From TrEMBL:
This is WbqC family protein.
């Protein structure tokens, strides 16, 4: 069984869903430290040819508490602002009519727990893309919660019966493949191949939110982009 483990991100980029598509089970790592400067609560869209931040409002962000211990602030004014940004950015995009109702519903969702909300968001995006990878919350698993980094990943692999672990390329310096092999787990990094698509005539801006990919590509073309990766 192929396994991936990732923190939940806010409307993450294409590579996140490539990882989800590449495995048989995907663990949402919700019981680890909240990183303020990461992608848990924000991402970027394309507005007037440039990357523009979008974000959700969170009460009392702290790197001393886990992701699951945080709550969203239900901020109607911010929701309206985000939706206006998205309308301005993508109202002329070819898939706007298909994608915007989904994105609007997710932004307006009233779930307060950050981990549960992001898990719901990832689940709906997964379903929209036609993937069937099971999503599991790390907090719901009965593994050894005291372990960290490579030890935690190996423990989860053994706990779930995975013999092949796939990690985002950004973690390249954190893991020792030989260590995993010695415990019967194949280890690979997933690397996104060069991906470009037409963005309303602007010079291409890479690695934006999955929202941008969906707005400018038909669903069947997005499915092809999900396979545009290499395991290294």
């Amino acid at each position: 069984m192929r396994l991936a483990i990732m923190q939940p991100y806010y409307f993450p980029y294409l590579g996140y869903f490539q990882l989800m598509a590449a495995v048989d089970a995907f663990v949402i790592l919700d019981d680890v430290q909240f990183i303020k400067h990461g992608w848990i609560h924000k991402n970027q869209i394309l507005l007037d040819g440039k990357a523009k931040p979008i974000h959700m409002t969170i009460d009392h962000m702290s790197q001393h508490r886990t992701i699951r211990a945080h709550e969203r602030r239900i901020d109607v004014q911010n929701e309206r602002y985000q939706l206006r940004l998205l309308e301005h950015a993508y109202k002329k995009a070819p898939s706007y009519a298909d994608v915007m109702p989904l994105v609007s519903r997710l932004i307006r969702d009233d779930e307060r727990n950050v981990a549960v909300y992001l898990g719901k968001q990832l689940t709906e995006m997964r379903n929209f893309l036609g993937l069937d990878t099971p999503l599991l919350y790390a907090s719901s698993l009965e593994n050894d919660k005291s372990k960290r980094c490579g030890d935690l990943v190996l423990d989860l692999c053994h706990h779930l019966g995975a013999n092949h672990y796939i990690n985002a390329i950004g973690g390249r310096g954190l893991y020792n493949k030989e260590r995993f092999a010695s415990e019967g787990v194949q280890f690979d990094f997933i690397e996104m191949q060069p991906v470009t698509y037409r963005q309303a005539g602007h010079p291409f801006v890479p690695n934006l939110s999955i929202i941008d990919v969906l707005m400018y590509n038909a669903k069947q073309d997005v499915r092809q982009l999900l396979d545009a990766y290499t395991l290294v």
